Amino acid sequence: MARVKGGVTSQKRRRNVLRQVKGYRFARSKKERAAKEAIVHAGKYAFAHRRVKKNDFRTLWNIRLNAALRTEGMNYSKFIGALKKHKIALNRKMLSELAEVSPSSFKAVLAAVR
Question: Which CATH number goes with the domain that contains 51?
Fold first, then answer.
C-alpha cells in the first residue's frame, strides 16, 4: 500500500483552529497549541455563561423596575407581592419594558395594583 503523507490534512486542521481564534491576542491567535487551549476555555465559558446571562438579565429587570417604582412611591418587593395578590400575570421582563418604553401603561398597571 502506498504511503500517505498527512501534510494537507494537518494544514487544514491547523487553519481551522487558527480561524476560530481570530481576534485573540498574542500567541493564542498564532500558535496552534495555545490556540487549541484558548478554544477549549472559550467553549467552557460560553457554556457556563449562557446560564449566568439569564440571571444577569433578571437582575437588570428587577433594578429597572425598582427604579421606576421608587419614582411612584413604591418599592419592588411590595409591588411584586401586590401583583401576585391581584393575580396579574406579567413577568419582570415585560414590566421593566413597560416602565422604560411606555410609562403611561406602567402607571395603569401600578394603579390596578394599588
Answer: 1.10.1900.20
